[in-house]
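Please predict the structure of the following assembly.
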Amino acid sequence: MTPVGNTRPQLRPHQSLTALAVAVVSAAVVAVAVSSVAAGCGGDSGEEIVVMAASSLSDAVEAVIADHDDVNAVFAGSSTLVSQLAAGAAADVLMTADGATMNQAIADGDVQGAPSVIASNSLVLATAPANPGGVTRLADLSRGDLLIGLCAEAAPCGALSQQALRGARIEAAPDTLELNVRALAAKLSLGELDAGLIYRSDALAVGLPVVEAPQLESLRNLYHIAAVSARPTPRVQALLDDFTAPDGAAAMIFAAQGFGPP
Amino acid sequence: MRTAGTESTSGAVDAGEERGLPTADADRGPGGRLPSTVTLVGFVALGLLALPVAGLLQRAPWSALPSILSGSEVLQALRVSLTVSLAATAVCAALGLPLALVLARLRLRFPRLIRALVMLPMVLPPVVGGTALLFALGRRGLAGQWLDSWFGISLPFTTAGAVTAAAFVALPFFVVTVETALRQAGTELDEAAATLGAGAWARILHVTLPTLRPALLAGVALAWARALGEFGATLTFAGSFAGRTRTLPLETYLALERDPEAAVAVSLVLIAVALAVLVTLRDRWTPR
């Protein structure tokens, strides 16, 4: 090659196409690498903390993490969260709506921190606004003329509902088994379902009428929290401490939203 | 007659191409003329598409497959899926053919807007479609409240509701396929029949429909495949109840949390069905 003035070597068309293709492919490779590195160090200080929480906790957890920087929450049914963790979802803190789902995550090896109980909830018989079905007692859940919704049994609210119905010897006639309690509450509040069993805190949050049912009062579910890693970073530990402090701000928020004490 | 038939065949192919289905045209022309980079990237893309299927196959519990697939929950979901998807396909054909004729043959005002409306369920997230259906056809919905108070019909959480949700997302696939074929076929035969004194119904039945046969079959197959795979709109609008509204995709999602092996097994069934439909489409309706 003889360097002549400032003429640059010209790319022939197929060369420039090759160059373009190489650029696109390498950009994609770099993007994938960067995002996987970023996902891998979600718990480091200065990085985003990801909290996975049961959908019934959504309002309370949003309120608590509003005071923390760079904390994001993912909400779904507890069983969905556990299977997402098993599939490799990156998270720092797991909050489930019962002990069974938390134990599953621990048994899977996806949660290594020790769990603690931060709050409780109980089921209520909630109806559509203005109670168009005239629901007055728990046994009305077996009425065939009403549209009844329950949580799917894989979700903690579903397991608790089955337990309650068995205890009360009621054969419910559900029309749908929703995958998480918030979806059920939404369909009740739209008036598409007449009655269903949801958490007291959800009935309060959505503003649904509640029918008193003595059979439900003795049953409680316990919300568990645990760090995903055995050795959480100081920021993750601080967040856990906030949630578990008996008289802290988080405890006040939980109480105000209709949750019971642990 | 012969020409028109061929034209409508290619119409069905074009409709397939719009949704990225493979066509036989891809391997036409001299082999080995592509720049090697293009070939390489092409095969990488193919690998990306094949990888998830490979992932499922590798996790498939082959020996337990018969017992899982003959389990009562899977059989129940299969029955619901077949009922719902076939009924939804029938609804698509019954409503979609007139709609395709209206779109292809009438001079409409705002044609772009109307076509966009028809195709909306194709691009809308199904869960949005399901929510919209609740607001429209739910017990308290725009039209649903009248259905309820006049006829006592309430669609949500019923098998009919699942059919509605599946038909809503599958209808555009049928309409677009048939409409494209109608446009390709043109109106010359129709006009010739009209000058020979054929009435409007006779022209549809004896001229238009016979030439549309391949496109109708393609439309039916695509709508059925889409209806069979429907998840989000069904879950939102029809809920999930075994034997009534819990279709195979819903069962897959539930099984994933309870028994991942069962989820893989059910997924394999859905993939096998979808591949069978697509391979049949390609063999029957594309030129070699």
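Chain B touches chain A through 27 residues (CB under 8 Å). DSSP finds 13 helices and no strands in chain B.
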